[in-house]
Amino acid sequence: MRMKQNDEVPTGPYFLYADDDPDDQEFFRSMVQEIEPSLSVVVVNNGLELLQYLNNVVSKETLPCCIILDINMPIWDGIRTLKALKVDEKYKSIPVIMFTTSRSLRDNELSLQLGAQGFITKPVNHQDLHKLYGRFAELCKPSP
Rounded distance, CA 54 to CA 68, Å? Predict the structure, then answer.
């Protein structure tokens, strides 16, 4: 599991991002930092690592403001992880966005039925990605 520097839980708002592609992981981190430098990103490689990370977070104040899940990951995929998150009282209120290359209508419908806030197919151009990451960052901004 690759976490933020020093393997510590971030002190401010952060995304928990599960994706097994190192390029997508780094791109997500850099875009979030470009759009909203106050946000941190904790990266895990699959759903099992995500749940292990969450189980090691000790208080409600240190939970992520949003979870971003890829669907196609080894060990625990995004759908299995979403199911586990939404049946657990500690985690079911955390917004989850499915962010994937899948264009499957079945994946989309199932994700929303299971409680995902959204299902977004990864765009291919930089401008669309920048807008999308800006929308993700809005999920983590404190309420006025």
Answer: 13
pTM for the whole thing? 0.84
Residue 47's domain comprises 5-140
C-alpha dihedral sign at 123, 132, 96, 38: positive
CATH of the domain at 33: 3.40.50.2300
DSSP, residue by residue, 99-129: EES---HHHHHHHHHTT-SEEEEPPSSHHHH
Query: What tens digit of pLDDT does each residue of 20-57 get?
Result: 999 888 888 888 888 888 888 999 999 999 999 998 87
Per-residue pLDDT band at 137 (split at 50, 70, 90): confident
Backbone angles phi, psi at 124, to 5 degrees: -105, -20
Q: Which helix (H) or strand (E) holds 96?
A: strand 96-100
CA distance 67 to 44: 11
- Residue 89 host element (H or E): none
Q: What is the tally of structural domains in the chain?
A: 1
